[in-house]
Amino acid sequence: MAAALKTLIVPPVGGGMPSATVFLLHGLGDTAQGWMDVARMLGQNQALQHVRFVLPTAPVQPVTVNMGMKMTSWFDLYSLTSMDEGEDEAGLMKSTEAIRGLVQEEINGTASQLNGHKVPSSRIVVAGFSQGGAISLLTGLTSPAKLAGVGALSTWLPMYAKVPAMRTQSDFPIFQAHGTSDQIVDFKFGESTHKHLANDLGFNKLAEFFPYEGMQHSASPQEIIDFGKWLERVLPI
Fold this sequence. Notes:
Blueprint: E1 7-10, E2 20-25, H1 36-44, E3 51-56, E4 60-63, E5 69-72, H2 89-108, E6 124-129, H3 131-142, E7 149-153, H4 163-166, E8 174-179, H5 187-200, E9 207-212, H6 221-234
Parallel strand pairs: 2-3, 2-6, 6-7, 7-8, 8-9
Antiparallel strand pairs: 1-3, 4-5
Helix pairs in contact: 2-3
């Protein structure tokens, strides 16, 4: 599946080969194009001009919560208010494996535009919004190689009960952000995810949680600024 994912790439503004890579995964119904402006803005930061941004687009598939309409989606969604109706575990793991495959291409130097140049896992961040954030968390927790960090924006940790047995990593930094007025993914899901990561999965201070007062299911300029500062810390020049 990894080869089937279309990606957009923002190369390092500083020119030359990157010394770090950031993956940005969009949310339900969006595409890579929807996050290009954010990638370009982050890349203009003087402290991030060594970073290459890779933006994959999810496959198109029916989504139960949207009356079965087909749209870009990392996995099927049965409910946005409760996990009691179950989760699309097969879809979650299929997309997680696809992103892990893209990460491995960075590590091997076989990804588009790298021309054999290798980016080690310790210099790779996987981040995403909403559905994309859920896949980012799963990718980081189950990656064979430890990542530089994971960004999780307006999202939640899926497969909550099964992650402890699935995880391979537990000591990478996490940037988690959530709007207090999120009308799609309730703020309480973000809070409970943070508590689970910090208290139950052993991340403690490595998992940072940034609440944004009044922000709905979107990304704010301040959030992107804060995310950029976090990237500067985990992917120094």
